Amino acid sequence: MKKGKVFSGVQPSGALTIGNYIGALRNFVGLQDEFDCYYCIVDLHAITVPQIPKNLRKRTLDVLALYIASGIDPEKSTLFIQSHVPAHSELSWVLSTITYMGQLNRMTQYKEKAKKSEENLNAGLFTYPVLMASDILLYQADFVPVGDDQKQHLELARDLAERFNNRYSETFKVPEPLISEFGARIMSLQNPESKMSKSDDDENAYILLLDDSDTINRKIKRAVTDSIGEIRYCDEQPGLKNLLNIYSVFSNEDVESLVKKYDGIGYGKFKEDLSEVVIEGLKPIQEKYLQLTNSKDYLEDVYKKGAEKAAYVSGKTLRKVYKKIGFIPK
Ligand code: TYM
Question: Is the entire prediction scored with pTM above 0.90?
C-alpha cells in the first residue's frame, strides 16, 4: 500500500535546466515507490507567455521524455499532459471565485513576470496560481515536491483548500510542500543573486539538461565567481556557493569534503572538475532521452494512459466539488 499522493508539474516553456532537475525532477524519482505520484506537463500554464505552437508541441514531448530519462517510471507514476484533462481548467474556474484579488496581487512571481511583460500582461499570468492550486487539489495530493520559488504558490493552494473546506465541508486534502533543504534554489551562473531560469535572456546563465559537453565546459568556465580566490562555502561568495551546490549534487560528495578537497587549489581546476562531473552526470539522462525521442509511439502510449488515469482520479474530485456548490449533476 502506498502512503499517500504526490503531485507536481513542470512547464514546457523552454528546455529544462539543471535547476529544474536539482530542485524538482531528481526528487520526483525518489518518491515513486512510497507514494502514488502524478507528474504533469503543464502546457496550460506555459501559454501564459507567448509560445510558438511548433515549439510548444516539441517541448511538451521533451519534458515527458526527460521525466522518464531522469528515472521516473511510467509503470509506477502517472505521467500526463495537463490540457488532456479538462478538470484542471474546470476546477480553476471554481477556485477563482473564492480567490481574493489581493492574494494574487501579492504573488512575487506574478510581480516579476508583470514587470518583464508589460505589453502582454494577460489575465492568465495573474490567475496562474489558481490553476496551479487546481492541479494539486484535484488529486488530493498530500505532498508537492517543488523548488523554493513555488513556495508562495503552494501557500495559496493550501489556503484555497481550507477556504473551500470551511465554506462547503471537508472536500480537499490540504497539501504540504516538499522542498529539499539542499538545491531548492539553483542560481544563475551569471548573476548568483537570481534564480537559474530557462527563460533567462542570457544563455550563459543556465545549463540545460541537453547541453553538450563543449557548451557545459564553456558555461562553467564563464560562470561568475569573485576575486577572493579561495574555495569556501559562504554567502560572501554566492557564485562559488552555487557551483559547490551543483558539484555536490552531481558528485554525491558533501560540500564540506569538496571545500577540503579544493583547499589551496584555484578556481580554474575546480571549474574543470565541476564541468566533468556535470557532463558525466547528465550523460545517462541524455542517452535515454535520445532513445525516447525515437520512440514516439511509446511516449504517446505513456501520455494517453496517464491522461486516462488522471481524468478518472480528478473527475471524482470535480464531481464532489460541483455537488457541494449546488450544481445539478448531469
Ligand atoms: P517550472 O516549470 O518553472 O519549474 C519546474 C520545477 O523546477 C523547479 N525549479 C528550480 N528548482 C531549483 N532551482 C532552480 N533554479 C529552479 N528553477 C525551477 C521549480 O520550483 C519547479 O518545482 N508553477 C510551476 C509548475 C506547476 C506546478 C503545478 C508545480 C504547475 N502546476 C502543481 C507543482 C504543482 C512552475 O512554473 O514550475
Answer: yes
